[in-house]
Design a protein that fits this description.
95 residues; alpha+beta; Histidine-containing Protein, Chain: A; three-stranded mixed β-sheet; 3 helices; 36% helix; elongated; BON_dom; Osmotically-inducible protein OsmY
């Protein structure tokens, strides 16, 4: 919490420091993998996940565009994640 300079009272929460304490990269990796495995629209075995400085990288090949989008959406709202970089590819994407 940031302090008011005049009387020392708290006036604004410091969300980043709370996220830093709770969401380590290792914890986030476990949460992301769990979310992907629980998603019935995603074949999580085909997805490689990396987490660096609370940024999630999704890599691999999926079956279709909807699966690519579903994988990203199911991890976007996990508390502590700063960003999701989606490198997942699907057949026909570049043709």
């Amino acid at each position: 919490m940031k302090k008011n300079e005049e009387n020392g009272t708290s006036w604004e929460p410091d969300f980043d420091s709370k996220a830093d304490r709770i969401a380590t990269d290792k914890n986030l990796l476990e949460m992301v993998m769990g979310a992907l495995e629980a998603n019935i629209f995603v074949d999580s075995k085909k997805i490689t996940v990396r987490v660096t400085d609370r940024v999630v990288f999704l890599e691999g090949n999926v079956h279709r565009k909807k699966e690519r989008i579903s994988a990203q959406e199911c991890v976007m709202d996990i508390f502590g994640i700063r960003a999701v970089i989606n490198y997942l590819t699907y057949p026909g994407k570049y043709s």
